[in-house]
Amino acid sequence: MKKQSEFLKEFKDIDELKNINNLSIEIIERRAKIIQDNTSDPESWRYRSFDGFLGENESFKERLKTDWKLLEQWNKDNRQSLTHIDISNKLKDVINQCEQVRKDLNFGPMAPIKLLYNKEIELYVIKNIYNGFQYSLFWNEKQKQLQQEQKKQNQKQEKEQEQDNQEEIWNRKWNIEYKIQNIKTQQEIIVSGDIDGGIINYIECLGFYEGDELNQYRINPIKLLSILMSK
Questions:
Q1: pLDDT tens, residue by residue, 57-72
Q2: Which residue, 192, 212, 216, 230, could crosslink 55 as a Cys pair with Cβ 3.0–4.6 Å?
Q3: CA distances from 166 to 22, 136, 144, 197 (A)
């Protein structure tokens, strides 16, 4: 069986998930709710969002299960076997192609780009770069500091290196987003982050597409596949 995501190999692993980057699921769920005012949460506002990562009444694990089931049903209906890793790779391919076109045409850093994805899907991509950073929902400052101290001391063993790499995946921030539109269908999504951090990382590692259908940064996996596969 193909592993579905980097850290949750199959559906049953969701129930067994206790923490991410040494943050409990309870802490993650509190962070994931919409924040109206940064001053209301001086301890962790950097890791939160004005749009939220989950709906008000959504739980993290139930959101994961819902989207995993959506992809499972889509695979059955379309006789496919896509994983969340495959979907994240599709998004990476779009962004990489977009940036290659930008480089080839000597366009500016935020110039809109038209591209032909997989030689048949016409996409229109708008990139925005912001002054402020969005920190990962799973950022753990203590883990970050520990990692930096270990690097300075240069005392890592092979096992410790693997753990540090995992922590580095979660301790990321970004100030970029991409709006990807299928020119024919006019369907579009917003990708918060780039190929190195943000929602692509969440999808690849957990099959997490964010929650709350009213959240502009949620990426419904079925809508995403429709955008990237509708000629």
A1: 999 999 999 999 999 9
A2: 212
A3: 11, 13, 11, 13
